[in-house]
Amino acid sequence: MASLHVIKPKARLSNSNILFLIAAIIFVVMYLFAIISFPGSFRQVQTFFDLFNLNAPLIIMTLGLSIVMIGGGIDISIGAVCGLITMACAVSLESRMGSIGGAVLVALGIGIAFGLLQGYLIAYLEIQPFIITLSGLFLAQGLLTTLHKDPINVTMPAFVSLRDFDFVIPWLGTKNRLGIFIPCEIKPGVIVVVVLLVILATLMKWSRFGRNVYAVGGNSHSAMMLGINVKRTIFFTYVISGLTAGIAGFVYIMTTGAGNVGNAAGAEMKAIASAIIGGTLLNGGVGNLLGAPIGTLILLVINELIRAGGVQSNYQAIVSGLLLYFFIVLQSVIMSLRDKKKFSLALPTWLRKKTVTQG
Amino acid sequence: MRKLITTLSQLVLPISVMMLLIVINLIKGVDYFNITLVNGALYGNIPNILFGASELVILSIGMTLVTAASQGQDISIGVNATISSAVFVLFVLHAGEVTLLVIVAGFLLSCVAGLVLGAFNGTLVSVFKVQPMVASLILFTGGRSIAFMIDGKLSPILANDISNQIGTVIPGVPIQTPIILTAIFIALVAVLFKTTNLRLYVETVGINPNAARLNGINPKKIIFLTFLIMGVCSAVAGFIAVNKAGRHDSVNQLKLIMMDAILAVAIGGNSLIGGKFSITGSIIGAYTIEMLNRTLLRLEIEPAMIKVFKAVFIIILMVVASPVVRVYFSKTLDRVRTWRLTTTIPKDAMVSTGKKEE
Hints:
heterodimer, A: 359 residues, mainly alpha, two-stranded antiparallel sheet, globular, disordered N terminus, disordered C terminus, B: 358 residues, ABC transporter involved in vitamin B12 uptake, BtuC, 17 helices, 2 strands
């Protein structure tokens, strides 16, 4: 990339970056709009952190899904797998042998097992990913109901203390009506999100594996011609997606503290929507992992705005559908204008210099 | 004759699955094919499967076309059916006295609603070049609320004789009406494909849109057309579903049917990334899914476990049908054949080859 910028005097942003940029700009504009129209709630820093606190599992799932989508596949089993893992963790924590380490192992184990199974079937047996992950969804839902049907509230003391644990930021916060200073709080799940985001974004941007994923997603045939092991690359994207679903499951139970049949139900569609809004294309080959949290946040801010605006509950879905429509059309119009070369965005000079020095 | 053989080879998978399910059912109980006459209509396992799968069959026909042309899937079909049937119910309930004419007019109106919804998705896919799954995600998110608003936040009940007869049986006709409607719909689709070039055009666009454009076929028009057909299919499916249930439930009607429809397309031997398609395969696939569901119920598997069995069955099915396993089997078959040839070669031939080697 960097060398290209050196050669071309008018270097253009890549598709991955422009879609991410659109999403990021929209998010900032939307959040500013929210702050202006509802200053009471949105100006508090805690509101921003709560978006992360309550939706960390969704962001983690979107990260894994984005990698699969960049590789040209799709994984619709993640929501059900995440739900299964919350229940399995709850059951294992409530049993006599239960420990937090054991629950983490259970979560990662189930996630990786699903990833390995689906990855093997999709990559090496060349079965259509939609069908395999759909049956993965059925499998996870079925196992969930066979494992336990009723909600379990985990009462293990060590786990409860972990659930209620918060990182407090003493220098950031708001004063409430009585004038008492309330510092901001961050759940441990958010730390997991940040760490995973850094690791996975680094992996996709600078490692050989990440570049292989982009190549395979863009055109698997030419990737094969270039000597990339296409099957192994696809296989590992699904393993990563399973792993992130496992982590998301544990983070989910760490925030809610209960195993329930309805946990994370329908999360796969939310994750797909947020990955798309964040600039990842379903065709593969295009996407930026930093777009995954941005896309999720856009969806969540839309919901929060609708709730803050006091819209009736059955209009909420319609409004979020309309906003989704707006994003999708906007993305498509910009992409088609770019194809006709009527709209090109040169990198600002200071940015270009930076990339040159890096390269 | 050769054409017949190629079409049959595409249908090997769905038909063999169906046979397998029938065998399992026969092992469970020999009375599987029994048909009884109740109130002048035929009931039994097979009529129940035909009755239960009618919406799925109609939707999977549309899904096959959309998949073939646009190389993606429409996930809003259940929602579209719910919205268009909400229009139908609204019209019938406001019409006063319910006559056959009112029902037909309501049905046509719901078809128009279906066309509008199909055009919405189709415009996004063909003009704006959005992937079908993303485009239909919009209606998937907001559609049920639209249906909820149309039917006045209640679940209205269709209590009249005609819709009751459409949902169950017409007196004097031994077959349940949804089965007849499905058969008529399949016949209409067959006529459409016999009399027009639609199949050729759809396949061309699905295989390579750019090549199709260079050959004078407008891929945008064809993709838009498949989405319109999908809209009509969902309107018909919604019409049947609402008459079967006797009431309009905008929250749960045809929920998650898109998964089954996509599965039917895949079981029917169609590729999910577009190109050549077989509607017969999809229809058989849809009936197979309904048969699978009813078989699992008949085997008295615990309700909690049903989904596990369904998933395992689908995975095994797809593994057996996967290209890698197929190639492997055909290779081993070839090896067995050549091995048998070498063992059955007469002794004279062996001697002659031996001489040559010397």
